[in-house]
């Protein structure tokens, strides 16, 4: 058992460093050095169980993404043909003898799914819901100063159980929380801002405190509000007395003068620090995020933030991180949100389940309005083994825990109790909606309760009929919106889901040719190709959806409509609807699975931002004489002039509610160039050259330095170019990767929806000229070299990334 000794030593070292910090509460990263094995090992709860053939790994971990795509997989197409099954995790750890009188608990941010956690042979509980955060008190079962065994059973075997890729395993962070027996309870603060103006904000801090001691305790409770520079701007103190074994709520009211408001452009964050002192000694400290903002939904004027009319310009996101699978990593989430922010999105809908703590934290910090969503199914199933099986026993607790975890985030402005729930067609929907709305209101009255509804005649929808929704969410059917102010007089309305158009990055079927058979029929051969690509001109859509342009044209004109959430921001694994095998991931994203924007990204950027935009497409490698549609998305200009090899093809400008302009151009090799002008002055120029033969690899990293913390990620974009650096638009070379130094390759992807190679391979085929390599710190403080090489014609290329 040499391994065990190693683990113990590492932990003791990290504990020693914790005890030197000033904070009373210890929150320890508990992700490192777990053992894992696929299969079912009930005996693994015992200390003497032999784990010689188990893998050692760090969490978060998703075993599905490590497996091979399999057409016969029980998860089926909706979940991306990846494996599921059962697996066990186990970790041996020692805690110091002097922690005997502490409250020690373990927190899991998400385990997919049906977890059961055991400590030293005792079951702490089960948790069927794979998206919910949960924790267990451990103290009573722990051995102090001696090894303890924690074992986690994960059972994702009953399939299919989802309409999209879920991943399997302990795929979010785990931590150990150590405090005195008098402490702030789990999710024990509830901070609201009953009044907010530029002059003054009032803050109500409700704190739940547990006294787990066998004796009464007298203590000082201190609440401070600190600004983004950690300067205290308000505080409040009270002396409290708690009887033994009690839990109670205490309220502090504070005022902050001239608060800096939180909005989507300047998401200014404060913090509430809750401290407990016993005999002048700090015995607990707890942090709560705080942002000052006020918002309203109005039946006529739509949404406003801090009194300013604001359209919700949102996207729906599923929880996977592309090639990383369900593995949660703050750096992966930050990259996604940054790409969306640059597009102009100001809102995220958490489809269709609780997302990670990191996602919530980043939405606060980066300024996104959040629709936080609890469920995709209630009691009636969508697929055989989905959450409906757990509904009766778990929905109340899951919903309560979800609200308690997320209600302090200023970014959250709506609670969605469900997406396209089956009970909307069934009168039982009335009672369930009322019950869920009441649960939400019992924990938070500061945000509206909504639900994403679908049906031809919404008036017949039972969730709507319950009368319990504060905000009506409508999915699709944008043509009907114009009548809503009359049909739903006085109701607040949001297009909770829209579009579901399909694109493959870098693939172009000419709209002028294809439009003849418009609109496409569901799954008809015309709207997709034999290689499972679809055109990236905004022309292919699901039968229930709309093109991006049609949808946005409608919504931008309707003031009563609070805004919209486009399905989806990024492609996600699974649900390649309507395309069958071998497609294995969705086409709906504005951005592909690897994180490369599709062309329509720039339509949104031209509409949703004020920065100057000019984007032309397609690429310029066609057959001589072929007629090509050249499209341009632009803003901040009166006109755009197009040139082919220096010859003007004319000036054009958007008419009426156009969102793009286009030219039909007879192809000749060379340079296609666009110039946008305002008042005769050039705003932007863009050109695309006909690429010659593939002859170089270009590597571009999304950051210059990586932290040696074994979490940090760098995404390296790999492009195949000709000798002059022009992207070769149809290149499909296989790239072999080698990483040396302080990093390891954790994922590769090219965004192709029907790719059948593993995301975990050491090589990747570029698709339409590009792929991505994701490198993670391996903890070593050594600079990283990524080497990329391919066939003899193309020079191998290396890039160095500094590690700090
Ligand atoms: C919606 C549904 C989403 C997704 C989408 C695909 O109806 O809410 O989860 O399935 O369709 O177009």
From TrEMBL:
GO terms for molecular function: hydrolase activity, hydrolyzing O-glycosyl compounds. GO terms for biological process: carbohydrate metabolic process. Residues 301-452 form the Glycoside hydrolase family 2 catalytic domain. Residues 625-683 form the DUF4982 domain. Residues 190-293 form the Glycoside hydrolase family 2 immunoglobulin-like beta-sandwich domain. Residues 1-19 form the signal peptide. It comes from the Bacteria. Residues 697-790 form the Glycoside hydrolase family domain. Keywords: Glycosidase, Hydrolase, Signal. Residues 28-177 form the Glycosyl hydrolases family 2 sugar binding domain. Pfam families: DUF4982 (PF16355), Glyco_hydro2_C5 (PF18565), Glyco_hydro_2 (PF00703), Glyco_hydro_2_C (PF02836), Glyco_hydro_2_N (PF02837). The keyword Transport does not apply. InterPro entries: Beta-gal/glucu_dom_sf, DUF4982, Galactose-bd-like_sf, GH, GH2_Domain-Containing, Glyco_hydro2_dom5, Glyco_hydro_2, Glyco_hydro_2_AS. Belongs to the glycosyl hydrolase 2 family. This is Glycoside hydrolase. It comes from Flavobacterium gilvum.
């Amino acid at each position: 058992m040499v391994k065990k000794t190693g683990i113990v030593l590492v932990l003791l070292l990290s504990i020693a460093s914790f005890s030197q910090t000033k904070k009373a509460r210890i929150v320890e990263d508990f992700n490192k050095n777990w053992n894992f094995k696929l299969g079912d090992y009930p005996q693994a709860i015992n200390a003497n169980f032999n784990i010689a053939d188990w893998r050692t790994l760090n969490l978060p971990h998703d075993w599905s993404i490590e497996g091979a795509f399999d057409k016969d997989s029980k998860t089926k197409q909706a979940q991306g043909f990846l494996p599921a099954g059962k697996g066990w995790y186990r970790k041996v750890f020692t805690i110091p003898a002097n922690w005997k009188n502490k409250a020690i608990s373990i927190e899991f941010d998400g385990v997919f799914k049906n977890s059961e956690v055991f400590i030293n042979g005792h079951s702490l509980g089960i948790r069927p819901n794979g998206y919910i955060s949960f924790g267990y008190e451990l103290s009573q079962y722990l051995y102090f100063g001696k090894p303890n065994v924690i074992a986690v059973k994960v059972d994702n075997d009953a399939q299919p159980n989802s309409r999209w890729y879920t991943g399997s395993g302990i795929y979010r962070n785990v931590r150990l929380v150590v405090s005195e027996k008098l402490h702030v309870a789990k999710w024990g603060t509830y901070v609201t801002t009953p009044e907010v103006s530029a002059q003054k904000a009032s803050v109500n801090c409700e704190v739940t405190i547990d006294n787990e001691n066998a004796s009464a305790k007298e203590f000082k409770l201190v609440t401070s509000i600190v600004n983004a520079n950690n300067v205290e701007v308000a505080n409040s103190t009270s002396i409290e007395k708690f009887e033994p074994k009690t839990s109670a709520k205490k309220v502090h009211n504070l005022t902050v003068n001239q608060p800096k408001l939180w909005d989507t452009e300047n998401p200014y964050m404060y913090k509430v620090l809750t401290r407990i002192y016993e005999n002048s000694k700090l015995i607990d400290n707890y942090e709560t995020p705080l942002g000052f903002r006020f918002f309203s939904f109005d039946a006529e004027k739509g949404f406003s933030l801090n009194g300013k009319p604001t359209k919700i310009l949102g996207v729906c996101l599923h929880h996977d991180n592309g090639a990383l699978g369900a593995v949660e990593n703050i750096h992966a989430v930050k990259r996604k949100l940054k790409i969306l922010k640059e597009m102009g999105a100001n809102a995220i809908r958490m489809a269709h389940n609780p997302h990670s703590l990191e996602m919530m934290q980043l939405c606060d910090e980066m300024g996104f309005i959040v629709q936080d969503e609890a469920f995709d199914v209630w009691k009636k199933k969508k697929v055989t083994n989905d959450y409906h099986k757990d509904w009766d026993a778990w929905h109340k607790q899951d919903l309560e825990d979800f609200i308690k975890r997320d209600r302090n985030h200023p970014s959250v402005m709506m609670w969605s109790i469900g997406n396209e729930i089956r009970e909307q067609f069934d009168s039982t929907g009335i009672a369930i909606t009322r019950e869920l709305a009441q649960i939400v209101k019992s924990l938070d009255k500061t945000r509206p309760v909504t639900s994403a509804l679908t049906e031809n005649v919404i008036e017949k929808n039972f969730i709507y009929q319950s009368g319990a929704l504060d905000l009506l969410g409508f999915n699709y059917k944008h043509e009907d919106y114009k009548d809503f102010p009359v049909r739903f007089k006085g109701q607040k309305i949001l297009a909770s889901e829209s579009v579901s158009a399909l694109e493959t990055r870098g693939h172009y079927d000419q709209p002028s040719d294809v439009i003849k058979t418009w609109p496409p029929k569901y799954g008809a051969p015309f709207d997709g190709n034999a290689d499972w690509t679809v055109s990236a001109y905004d022309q292919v859509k699901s039968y229930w959806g709309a093109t991006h342009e049609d949808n946005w044209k409608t919504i931008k004109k309707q003031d009563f409509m609070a805004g919209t959430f486009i399905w989806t921001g990024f492609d996600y694994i699974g649900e390649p609807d309507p395309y069958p095998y071998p497609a294995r991931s969705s086409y709906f994203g504005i951005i592909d699975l690897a994180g490369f924007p599709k062309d329509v990204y720039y339509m949104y950027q031209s509409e949703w931002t004020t920065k100057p935009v000019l984007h032309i497409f397609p690429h310029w490698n066609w057959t001589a004489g072929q007629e090509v549609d050249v499209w341009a998305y632009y803003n901040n200009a009166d006109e755009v002039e197009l040139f082919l090899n220096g010859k003007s093809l004319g000036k054009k400008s958007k008419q009426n509610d156009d969102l793009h302009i286009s030219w039909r151009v007879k192809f000749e090799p060379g340079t296609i160039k666009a110039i946008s002008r305002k008042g005769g002055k050039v705003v932007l120029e863009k050109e695309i050259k006909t690429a010659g033969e593939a002859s170089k690899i270009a590597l571009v990293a999304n950051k210059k330095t990586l932290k040696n913390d074994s979490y940090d990620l760098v995404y390296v974009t790999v492009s195949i170019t000709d000798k002059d650096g022009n992207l070769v638009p149809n290149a499909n070379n296989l790239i072999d990767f080698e990483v040396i130094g302080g990093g390891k390759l954790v994922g590769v992807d090219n965004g192709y929806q029907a790719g059948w190679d593993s995301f975990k391979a050491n090589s990747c085929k570029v698709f339409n000229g590009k792929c991505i390599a994701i490198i993670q710190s391996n903890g070593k403080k050594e600079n990283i070299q990524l080497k990329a090489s391919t066939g003899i014609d193309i020079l191998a290329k290396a890039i160095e990334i500094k590690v700090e």
